Amino acid sequence: MRSSLPKPLHRVCGRPLVLHVLDALAELPVARVVVVVGYRSVEVTKTLRAEAPAGMRLEFVEQVRPLGTGEAAAAGLTGFPESYEGREDGDVLVLPGDAPLVRPGTLAALVRAHRTSEAAATLLTARVADPRGYGRVVRAKGGGVSRIVEDVDASEEEREIDEIATSIYCFRHSVLAPALRRLSPDNAQGEYYLTDVVAVLHDAGHPIGSLLVPDPAEAAGVNDRSQLAEAEAEMRRRVNTRWMRRGVTMVDPGHTYLDTTVVIGEDVTILPGVVLEGATRVGAGASLGPSCHLVDCEVGAGAHLEHCTARQAVIGDDAEVGPFAVLEPGTRLAPGSRTGAFFVGAPA
Q: What is the pTM of this model?
């Protein structure tokens, strides 16, 4: 059963999937970012314009026909200005919107490998224990990449290959558009596969490069709710590890849930069952938990909260909240104040 929501807007640690991809791109010196949209394009475009990394200029192109990744790539190329055409040194980095775990350093390494090898295309690959559902990387006798075969079109022998394509590529711009025009929907799904561009370029005599990603988790796409949960768990592990290395104490990181947008000061202690969402900021030396859920809150330095829920509240320095307190939106607690087991509402 598939969700009716557009996949790029499913959230992982508070951010839509596609925004994690844009966050990774934001750390690279890219000249232009084109986002291909389709179903519910207005909602997707509005969300990305509002939440995109600061300073990133996005261009949106609609994929009119939902006929596969090849059609999506062809639509995306129309978002580049005509002046870009014919630039032999121009490269195009292609990424799916459902790969939230890819790291900026991996993308940078892919571009470096592509330019060093002077390949027409360089693909990011991974070796996984269970390659079912992924396109397999087929190599020629000399070891070079010759093509990618989708799982539904693979033979029994090809399904034994454990090296998969991640759907992340770096292409020489001058060869990508002509290769896309040679794609055919003659396959099990009746679609134009971007993966087929690899075989088109290889058969035309162009060199194809590859880079094996060290961490297979980066290759994980999100195609169902199970994979969404797995991506959430891995991203949460990364977020928690980053904050602990910056001096935050987490008694039980496995039961601590932080959005990527949360900011935490030094020497904060977080007990199990804490959920921090949105634009929540926690001051130095504060103690949270057990069992606190804060959304878009400001917590002052040295404050102590336990068994409480708050939304859009400001909690002063050294204040004590809970146990079993609920702070309504707009609540402002003075420094050093105390609340008990009741609702605290915003002033009229």
A: 0.87
